[in-house]
Design brief:
mainly alpha, two-stranded antiparallel sheet, 24 helices, about 0% strand
């Protein structure tokens, strides 16, 4: 029901439809013109291209064939509503409710399919194909660009009831990655030169359109590629990760306007909306955990990300209940209600309080937000201003965590070597400390002899306080709790 979902969905015709049509039917320029003409017919026909006045009798017959075959109506919204599969128990009331909720989302998908099919049909006829051939070509290319979301067309392992629930919103992502990996494979292993050329054209077109719409930061696998590059090219004198460092250089080199378009895409920059996370695929299959997550937390975040919206729903519900229990009912309600309602509640909070973190600290003050920031949030989008603030917040927190972890690691290495009587290890640790102290960002955190002596003293003190691996700082509380513990069964 979120308006943002429907609007973002319309980008699929540009991002996939134009490259797919252009690869087989005359290039991007002709495909773009045909898509624009078909879009005008769809809107002029009252959101139904069959009603457009300029259609010929053959074109109307083709549109009827598209509807009869299920090409246009077999959409993801119908699949989510539970009416996309055969054999589903039909409930008139439920179907009516779902048709109202999914109206905008479904109409956007219908527009995608009608426009792509009509454009493909016209391009095929222009190339000399007869009526039947052109209709078949339009079917083939529309399925390729907009996918078949019916359960029978999924991979066998995804057809069970459990998989349908857990991975229902991953359907598009899985189809996208199949499209890209299939094109990569066919560009190298295609049976004919024509098949190779078409696959390469599609791959280049899709990746190019994705970069234009979502920016370089939305490029497929961007975050993974930046993480790999950071292993080889990371600047030891800059505490930020390689990705943040490179993006900063782009903005310094090209300025905030051109640099912003390069990084975040032209539509997102011009509309001041964060479209990169909605249109791009920077994390391949799933959003990777934050850089300062470790161990069990990292694994937990990864599992939740793999389950997509379903996993997030469970986590959000738990967080919502926790916030309500703490008395923060408004923030809890944002997480416990359906997304389109939560977006409205969140926009109301932004309008009155500004953007606050969970502790209540300001991320963006109220007077820095304008009406567009509030409207965007109510519609299901995140404004670029708010998105940038969160990104800077995350980058700063990750950089601080990395610096403190690096410092703690060197102090620990020296202390352990000192306590073990390892002179070589202590000397090596001191050399690393001297090098680290010279880094620009370590100026206020230098590791001195006093730092090392205090660390060693704290360790010895904690060893005396430690009981069953636990250090309780308060002496009275420590004695009281130890006195309440039962005798050890195994001394």
């Amino acid at each position: 029901a979120s308006p943002a979902a429907a609007l973002v969905n319309l980008s699929q015709t540009v991002m996939l439809g134009i490259p797919v049509l252009g690869a087989r039917l005359g290039g991007v320029a002709k495909a773009s013109a045909a898509v624009l003409r078909a879009s005008k017919d769809f809107i002029g026909g009252g959101f139904n291209a069959r009603n457009a006045k300029g259609l010929t009798s053959d074109e109307r017959a083709a549109m009827d064939a598209f509807y009869e075959s299920g090409l246009v109506d077999r959409t993801q919204s119908h699949e989510l509503a539970g009416v996309g599969d055969t054999g589903v128990q039909y409930s008139p009331v439920r179907a009516k409710v779902m048709s109202v909720i999914a109206w905008a989302f479904h109409k956007a998908e219908v527009m995608n399919r009608e426009v792509t099919a009509l454009a493909a049909y016209r391009l095929a006829r222009d190339q000399g194909q007869d009526q039947r051939e052109a209709i078949n070509t339009a079917h083939d290319l529309t399925w390729k660009a907009h996918f078949d979301y019916s359960n029978s067309s999924r991979a066998r392992v995804l057809q069970s009831d459990t998989a349908k629930v857990l991975l229902v919103f991953q359907n598009y992502q899985l189809n996208m990655w199949y499209r890209l990996t299939r094109d990569i494979h066919q560009s190298l292993k295609g049976e004919t030169p024509q098949a190779k050329r078409e696959a390469r054209f599609q791959l280049a077109g899709i990746m190019g359109m994705m970069t234009m719409l979502a920016g370089v930061t939305g490029f497929a696998g961007y975050n993974v590629l930046m993480a790999i590059a950071g292993l080889f090219f990371d600047d030891g004198d800059d505490p930020r990760d390689f990705k943040a460092e490179m993006e900063s250089h782009v903005l310094q080199l090209f300025g905030p306007d051109i640099g912003g378009m390069i990084l975040k895409g032209v539509p997102g920059y011009l509309t001041r909306l964060d479209l990169t996370s909605r249109l791009g695929m920077p994390d391949f299959f799933m959003r990777m955990p934050e850089g300062n997550s470790e161990g069990r937390n990292w694994y937990r975040e990864l599992v939740v990300a793999a389950l997509g919206v379903t996993g997030s729903f469970v986590v959000n519900a738990g967080q919502g209940v926790s916030l309500v229990a703490q008395g923060n009912i408004a923030r809890g309600a944002e997480l416990l209600t359906p997304k389109f309602i939560g977006d409205i509640l969140k926009s109301y909070r932004f309008a009155n309080e500004g953007v606050l973190n969970v502790r209540g600290d300001p991320v963006i003050e109220r007077d820095r937000l304008d009406a567009w920031d509030i409207i965007a949030r109510a519609s299901g989008f995140t404004s670029a201003r708010i998105s940038e603030a969160y990104e800077r917040n995350k980058s700063l927190r990750n950089a601080e965590a990395d610096v403190l972890k690096e410092r703690r690691k060197m102090v620990n290495a020296w202390a352990l070597a000192r306590m073990a009587g390892d002179d070589d290890g202590r000397a090596a640790a001191l050399e690393k400390i001297r090098t680290w102290n010279e880094k620009p960002y370590a100026k206020g955190l230098r590791i001195t002899q006093d730092t090392l002596a205090q660390s060693l003293q704290t360790r010895k003190l904690n060893n005396r306080r430690r009981d069953d691996g636990v250090v309780i700082e308060n002496k009275h509380l420590r004695r009281t709790l130890q006195g309440l513990m039962p005798e050890r069964v195994y001394p």
